[in-house]
Amino acid sequence: MAITSPDRLHRDWRAARARGESSLAERLLARLQPGAALVTVGDFHPATLSWLGAVEGNTIVPLGVDRFGQSGDIPDRYRAYGIDSDAILDDADRACLTALRPTE
Description:
- The protein contains five helices and two strands.
- It has helices spanning 6-19, 24-29, 52-56, 74-81, 85-100; strands spanning 38-41, 60-63.
């Protein structure tokens, strides 16, 4: 899912919770299997979408930019920040394995 406005989605979730209603985030995440892990990726701080784990209790693997000042082309910078396709696939694998582990 592509989230074009994390702040609006978060505001909607908080407002819907306050009203006792279902939010867009809840309706979207309800389509996932219970216990599914989420890998969030963006060219912003990893914590930006971490709140999504609280919506349905999903495990979150947040990827993003937590330091600044790198120069180069986009593929080089994404690789340096760990948000390139290889990093996303590795973390998706880890998230799937984490979701499959029995809880104690």
